[in-house]
Amino acid sequence: MFTKQFPKSLLAFIFLILIFQAIAIIFYWYWRIWWFDMPMHFLGGLWVGLSVLWFVFLSKRLTVNIPQTAFSTFVTGVLLVFIVAIVWEIFEYVVQVFIPREIPYDILDTLSDIFWGLMGGVTASFSFSRKRYLEKQ
């Protein structure tokens, strides 16, 4: 799955997320199914986590001196997913300011989105660390 070239499985995964996103918008799932954005943020966090961990540790495009321990992998993955989640929520807020909707801004929804994105990042970090550990055996 992980090579110097961006993994095809991660390209397929983001394409699958894009398909879910398009279907959800077409059929108003975000408005009809109150919990639908939770798995979407989880999947987004999982994809971002796996992608940034691949980029940092396997792509050979960065020269960083981060030791590849389970702890450093976990912290790197979760921290980068957290940063992306915060930036995404700021983007959503700015879009809502410039394109007002009938639904007012909701801080609990924002916190829930960040939480589910982080859970995806935690899952990515654990799975990446486990795969790297098993490869070293």
Main features:
137 residues; mainly alpha; 5 helices; elongated
Q: Could you explain how this protein is built, in words?
A:
By secondary structure, the chain is mainly α. It has one domain. Helix content is about 75%, strand content about 0%. The chain has five helices and no strands. It has helices at about 10-25, 30, 35-60, 70-100, 105-135. Helix 1 packs antiparallel against helix 3, helix 3 (about 35-60) crosses helix 5 (about 105-135) and helix 4 (about 70-100) packs antiparallel against helix 5. It is elongated. The model has no long low-confidence stretch (mean pLDDT about 90).
Which helices and strands appear, and what pairs or packs with what?
Blueprint: H1 8-26, H2 29-32, H3 37-58, H4 70-98, H5 107-136
Give a brief outline of the structure:
This protein has 137 residues and is mainly alpha-helical. It has one domain (8-136).
Low-confidence stretches: none
Q: What oligomerization state is this entry in?
A: single chain
**Major sheet attributes:** none
Radius of gyration (Å)? 16 Å
